[in-house]
From TrEMBL:
InterPro entries given in the database record: DnaQ, GIY-YIG_endonuc_sf, Ribonucl_H, RNaseH-like_sf, RNaseH_sf
Gene Ontology cellular-component annotations: cytosol
Gene3D superfamilies assigned to the protein according to its UniProt record, in alphabetical order: GIY-YIG endonuclease (3.40.1440.10), Ribonuclease H-like superfamily/Ribonuclease H (3.30.420.10)
GO molecular function per UniProt: 3'-5' exonuclease activity; DNA binding; DNA-directed DNA polymerase activity
Self-association and partners: DNA polymerase III contains a core (composed of alpha, epsilon and theta chains) that associates with a tau subunit. This core dimerizes to form the POLIII' complex. PolIII' associates with the gamma complex (composed of gamma, delta, delta', psi and chi chains) and with the beta chain to form the complete DNA polymerase III complex.
Pfam entry (one): RNase_T
Organism, as annotated: Tenacibaculum skagerrakense
Classification via NCBIfam families: dnaq
Entry protein name: DNA polymerase-3 subunit epsilon
TM helices/strands, residue ranges: none
Coiled coil ranges: none
Domain spans labelled Exonuclease: 1-166
PANTHER family for the chain: DNA POLYMERASE III SUBUNIT EPSILON, EXODEOXYRIBONUCLEASE 10
Length: 365
């Protein structure tokens, strides 16, 4: 479905214009199946040159509906449609501006008949709507009025569809639909993520981890990643299939897990800088770091022996506090001990932890 739109405005400063008239023809590629045409009271003065161009003046709009009164109808008629307009960036911007004033984020995909005409009907003297239609024999009535210009755009777009032998317009429309489905998929992914601290993993359709991130609020951090407009973030967004995560419960484990996973997995879209590893020892050779876990009755433990980081585990210490041999069986072994030591050492220098328990290797805790 296509929503072919033309808008007349008051003129004025960029993003301060108001709509004076709007016409929308809902087009299925063959025929117009619905339409909406209305004058709109912009609640501001129309610039004199615009009055002369369109013939619309403030007296004509005194009893016309204000935008908020037609906003719901516009949303309904354009729902599921690609916006088509001659200079679509202008009409779409005006609509988004009006809805933003109402506190609503109006989002649709759009195609511009100026750009399509330049590709499919090259070497024209002018691509303005009036001159282009005249050269192509397309009749235009009520020029510079929304209904007349929108209907002329309908006829022009129909011609462009006929000329589109490679079906580029249709392919682009299908890409929009696929993109819309991808947006819905991303929204579903975000809804499933917790607002908890931890590390998250972006997977592509093959299940491969392509990016690792971390933060105090996993859902917020993933949302912020998908909202970024740099090339790397956009590639991650287009390739994401699944997001998995591991809650951490503490900043120390978030940091430790994040850097160990980067070193082990080396995801394609992470910028991994080589860290300078510490050569300093801990203050004690043998000890446990005890931090809060992911739930109230759980603890994180990190075991240090002979000044090396052995491993970590999440457990309830009330059951194993005096059983070092049992705790060792629960540990997840850390392979890159130098990196782990650097992360923990730097953290201890700048932060306090829940508890550090010293012990003698031959004794129980």
């Amino acid at each position: 479905m296509y929503a072919i739109v033309d808008i007349e405005t008051t003129g004025g400063k960029f993003n301060e214009e108001g709509i004076t008239e709007i016409a929308i023809y809902k087009y299925d590629g063959h025929t117009v199946v619905d339409q909406f045409i209305s004058l709109v009271n912009p609640e501001k003065e129309i610039q004199e040159f615009v009055v002369k161009l369109t013939g619309i003046n403030n007296n004509m709009l005194r009893n016309a509906p204000k935008f908020h009164e037609v906003a719901k109808r516009i949303i309904e008629i354009t729902d599921g449609c690609v916006i088509i307009a001659h200079n679509a960036s202008f009409d779409y911007r005006i609509l988004r501006t009006e809805y933003s004033r109402l506190g609503y984020d109006y989002v649709r995909d759009s195609l511009c008949t100026v750009q399509l005409s330049k590709k499919l009907i090259p070497d024209q003297d002018s691509y303005s709507l009036g001159k282009l239609c005249r050269s192509l024999g397309i009749p235009v009535t009520d020029r510079h009025r929304a209904s007349g210009d929108a209907m002329a755009t309908v006829k022009l777009f129909k011609l462009l569809l006929d000329k589109d032998n490679d079906k580029k317009i249709l392919q682009r429309t299908i890409q929009f639909v696929d993109n819309r489905n991808h947006k819905l998929k991303i929204n579903g992914i975000l809804e499933e993520l917790p607002e908890k601290e931890g590390v998250f993993y972006i997977h592509n359709e093959n299940g491969n981890v392509i990016f690792i991130g971390r933060g105090k609020n996993i859902r917020l951090e993933v949302t912020k990643l998908f909202l970024k407009d740099n090339k790397r973030a956009q590639k991650i967004k287009t390739k994401v299939d699944t997001v998995t995560y591991q809650e951490s419960g503490s900043q120390l484990f978030t940091r430790l897990k994040y850097y160990l996973e980067l070193d082990n997995i080396k995801p394609k879209y992470n910028l991994i800088r080589k860290r300078k590893l510490t050569e300093l020892d801990f203050n004690h050779d043998h000890f446990l770091i005890v931090e809060k876990g992911r739930i109230p009755e759980e603890n994180l433990i990190i075991l240090i022996e002979k000044n090396d980081v052995i491993g970590y585990a999440f457990t309830n210490l009330s059951y194993q506090r005096n059983k070092l041999d049992v705790l060792k069986k629960l540990l997840t072994t850390i392979e890159n001990k130098s990196l782990a030591k650097t992360i923990i050492k730097n953290y201890l220098l700048n932060n306090s932890v829940g508890q550090i328990v010293r012990y003698e290797l031959e004794n129980n805790l």
